[in-house]
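Example 3.2
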Amino acid sequence: MNRRLIEFGVVLFFASVPFWLGNLYYLHILITTGIFIIAAMSLNLLLGYTGQLSLGHVAFFGIGAYTSALISIGFDLELTDTYTFVFEPKPVWFSFLCGIAFAAICGWLIGKISFKVRGAYFVIVTISFAEVVRLVALNWIDLTEGPMALNNIPPFTLGIPGLWELTFFKKEPNYWLVLALCVVSFVIVRRLVQSRAGRAMIALRENESLATSVGVDVTKYLVLATVISAGMAGAAGGLYTHYIRIVDPDVFLFIYTVTMVIMVITGGKGTLLGPIVGGLIFGILPEALRGLAGPEVQWVIYGILMILVVYFLPGGIVPALSNWWRQREDNQSTSSPGDAAPGTAS
């Protein structure tokens, strides 16, 4: 069957979910899972296709969230005793794009600085950056409200002011919005990976010295991956803040980066479907366990399952399924009747 037709069928199936899923809480879980799948896809671009582990990736998620929130609600910033800078609220679509752009710019700056060092040093730089951004959000109370959080953040609104507007108050339109952004993110990653730049990134992951010797500009392609990855994470943060409609410094917690890494590793890093499969499993699993066990037991089961997946499927779920399907097809082709010796009875 044509791959495009299968992909269209899968998207159509997920688009139909709000019509037959009657429980709005389950729909909420799918929305938040979809947001983190976008973040996981962005991390996979770095971890899976360039081999660079970023443990501060949540910083770009939080930057997108705070930037989009602040621009959409407006803010006053006292610069001197006599002058206060007043920023009027802007449309949500504009603030959302600004959040993506600012996250991408931060990704460019971090990439230019930190890709002069890699390995453990790059990990330390990214963690430090995430902690610095968290402290800024926590302590710059005049701008971010600190631990009191930014609230009354407007939801997404599409349309022409005064003529026609669609406000994303309900869960159904938010679900379709997240699904659309998931599809767009997937297409962006796939087009990039299949391009010349993507092949250069994979070459750097496999053998950086060899790639450099044939003329691949290491810093250029690593920074490009970081910029696109940071922008996608910023988009996920913007979706999160306009859906939840409140954001505080906890959005920078390290556990969110760990969640993204788990989704990528267990699903299959360096594969297009890995973050999606890992995200669906480990995004929905905690809620599936909620009715079966207490909170402590839930996390024990969650951890054991993750260890089992990593132990028995070290390449991830998607590569394991791909290998199984390939072996199955090979076995069928070798045992087909057409391969029988000439002259045998039919």
